[in-house]
Give the backbone structure.
Amino acid sequence: MSIRERLRIVIEIQGISIKAFAELVDIPLRTLHNYLSGEREPSSEFLSKIADKFNINLNWLLLSKGKMYLEENKIDLDEDESELLDHYRSVNELGKRILKKTSKIILSELSNNEI
């Protein structure tokens, strides 16, 4: 199985369109199409980003060795925490920076207003 086939599997498991996947990993749609068609080999930066974002075993993605997913550290999140994390994961890098800055501002304001 080739890298492009494994990329397709990752996209299918996410249950989203190719366009939505490209947005999630913050690459141009044309670039992703080139990877999936075999016209270009995916960059190591791109593969690393996918591995990190979706908890994919990089050895599986590159070489088809081992399990697809890395072992997860189980953390119990309540519904609100899970929702915040989902929002963070669903935005591109600019959105992540904005969310981080906004949360720091909110925390600062809250700590300044505590009695």
